[in-house]
Amino acid sequence: MGTILNLKRHHYVARVGIFLIAVALIAGMAGCADGTPAVTEYDLTITSAIGGSTAPATGTHTYDEGDVVDLVAEAEEGYQFVNWTGDTDTIDDVNAATTTITMNHDFSITANFVEVAVYYLTIDKTPGGSVATPGEGSFPYDGGTVVNLVADAADFGGYRFVNWTGDVGTITNVYAAETTIMIDGNYRITAHFSKYMVSAAVAHTVGLKGSGVVFATGLNDDGQCDVGGWTDIIQVSAAGWHSVGLRNNGKVVAVGRNNYGQRDVGDWTDITQVDAGWGHTVGLEDDGTVVATGYDSSNQCDVDTWTDIIQVSAGGHHTVGFQIDGTVVATGNNDYGQCNVDDWTNITRVDAGWFHTVGLKNDGTVVATGLNNRGQCDVDAWTDIVWVSAGAGHTVGLKADGTVVSVGDSDYGQRNVDDWELLGGMITITSRLHP
Prior knowledge:
The chain is mainly β. The protein has 3 domains: 41-115; 118-191, no CATH class; 193-431, Regulator of chromosome condensation 1/beta-lactamase-inhibitor protein II (Methylamine Dehydrogenase, Chain H, 7 Propeller), CATH 2.130.10. The chain contains 1 helix and 33 strands.
């Protein structure tokens, strides 16, 4: 009986073993009908921080083991991609917005973005040229953007680019017309232009050559013509019995009479424009403020509080300046209303004469105020003007076509300019002052 039971037990075990083998074979055949091993699959779960999207899109995606999946992170406006985080051990470059991941297990990764600070670059310019790139006005840029700057001098009148002033800390070369600025804050800069110029005073004349060399002629009783040693000059101005010159490094030189301290400019720095009056001198600093020295009987040197100035002019006993917003400020003698400029707008240049002031508007018209005993303020009918200059008793203007117009005193022929055509080679003659 025991023998029979053992035999039955063996038959049962054998049948179970055969059954299990069959099940395994069937399962194997069901997994791969073509006889190849079963493929392992893994899940890739992608999430995205605020500020961007991904490809593949956020969610869970299934891939075969060994697949190399392209990853693309795209930042929205005002954001930038930072990195991939999470299960990143097979990501080719976690810092690249476009990269790959190799699927050898389940992954969960996140695309990270950060909000980019937006800053404004505001660009102004002085008369005599334009800013071709990026233009004039205010422009928004993401922090870290490198912006090309291109300044173009006017194609008439002998203008040349001088320098960039203002918030110039990240400008590659402030003396280059074509340069770059790196935006990491709100910046305001100005492109300055100047002329190969001549400036006429009471009894002497100073001229600036294109090479930066200065020459002078006329009465030299006070040494006002002793400019032979001046070099690297970008602007000159003569009035009364002294002469001043602006160097390309922002410093100022002066010769001539100094009875009122009008030549005390040796410690001036970062100057972008100078102008000489009868007994005083004014200088425009690169931050838009103004300095002055010399005769101050009528407070013509009280410019300490001026800001956002683009250009200044020193007259007989008054000083005027126009601001970034096109308005004008004035100080000094106002016996004839030469300082009544509070309501002037859209001004691009000012010039102070002996007892009058003229302003050039951005539409090519001209305004004037002050003494008009010789008709020196009768400029209301002028149009297409690109430059103005005020003398002792007359005013001249350069038109866009190169011709010259004038009003006022002509006792000495100072208005005999009807046949002048100055396109392509204009010099500025600042008709200056009598004592």
